[in-house]
Write a structure and sequence with these properties.
The chain has 146 residues and is mainly α. Helix content is 79%, strand content 0%. The longest helix has 28 residues.
Length: 146
């Protein structure tokens, strides 16, 4: 079988992706997560917190909810429906840390949860931090030139 024939066969047998529906679902769920975050900010502000403190507490609440839903195996169901919509940075990051911890808990707290918890989130932290250093350095240089 030639490579061209193989590619044609794969294209023929692969299920068609309903891209418009997937995009709308991702947009709706991602937007709903953001709206929920804003509801928390407004609620915490109404309770008397400063706006910055309310934002911090809202972020912490979203992380806790994401970890809880991951532990209850509900976040995966939401992700199957919403796709990239669940990758809203704070909830997706919390899920990427909690999911391996839940998956490897049978291996113990040290070699299971502790060792595997950052298998997904670790590279995100490393490259995110590295990129921020590079961008900060470029910005610092740029500020002297302009």
């Amino acid at each position: 079988m030639t490579e061209k024939r193989y590619d044609e066969l794969v294209k023929e047998l692969s299920p068609k992706s309903p891209i418009l529906r997937d995009c709308l679902q991702a947009f709706a769920v991602g937007g709903a997560i953001c709206v929920l975050g804003q509801i928390f900010v407004n609620w915490y502000t109404a309770l008397g917190l400063e706006k910055e403190d309310a934002g911090t507490l809202a972020s912490m609440t979203l992380v806790a909810l994401s970890a809880l839903l991951t532990g209850l195996s509900l976040y995966d169901d939401l992700a199957k429906y919403a796709g990239a919509g669940t990758l809203v940075p704070i909830t997706g990051f919390a899920n990427s840390i909690a999911a391996p911890a839940v998956e490897f808990k049978t291996e113990g707290f040290v070699l299971g949860v502790g060792a595997k918890m950052f298998t997904i989130a670790g590279p995100v932290i490393v490259y995110g931090l590295s990129a921020s250093v590079v961008y900060g350095f470029v910005y610092w240089i740029w500020s002297f030139m302009g």
